[in-house]
Amino acid sequence: MTGAERHFDGGTETGSADGLERLWTPHRMTYISGEDRPEGGYEKPTGCPFCLAPGLPPEQSLVVARGERVYAVLNLYPYNPGHLLVCPYRHVADYTELDPDETIELGVFTQTAMRVVRKVSNAHGFNLGMNQGGVAGAGIAAHLHQHVVPRWGGDANFMPVIGRTKVLPQLLTDTRDLFAQAWPS
Questions:
Q1: With helix as H, strand as E and coil as C, how does 71-96 read?
Q2: Which one is catalytic: 83, 91, 143, 145?
């Protein structure tokens, strides 16, 4: 079905053509619907993807780099290509729960992530931030994570603005490999 098709119910039009093309991404429905949420939810470390990721193989976890207290991982549902998350290993929900060493390493990893993304993909700028709590937009509120979202001049071009389509030109595993290779030892 395309955006140009109309739906009729008993001869009465219930929808109208909007002229938009559709780029189907059915893999995102598990995220939107919560189908892939663990039985106990994200609140418990046994079901938290940020607690589980460091123990998985790199191609499955998308972990780019590991520190003593935090690690960097690609966002499985990125806003832009190269969207990284910096996460403490410890399962904490709020920034105020980090100890001083975790706070420092989170900041250093965020700086390193920015340098790596600039080196690998020539990002022009970044959006950095944490959504603290579900009401603030945190999809997984139980485990703190810092977003590092690369931006380029024109990245909010006609595709998302007019075409209502986001283009991600590289597979996440390929991006992970490039970032991991560029991350300083």
A1: EEEECCCCCCCCCEEEEECCCCCCHH
A2: 145
Tell me, yes or no, whether 1 lies in a domain.
no
State the residue range of the domain holding 62: 19-182
Encode pLDDT of 107-152 as tens digits. Answer: 999 999 999 999 999 999 999 999 998 888 888 899 999 999 999 9
Structure tokens at 118: 């600039």
Segment 101-115, tens digit of pLDDT? 999 999 999 999 999
The SS3 call for residue 45 is helix
- How many distinct structural domains can be found in the chain? 1
Q: At 29, which CATH number? A: 3.30.428.10
Number of Cβ within a 10 Å radius of residue 65? 20
pTM: 0.72
143 tagged catalytic? no
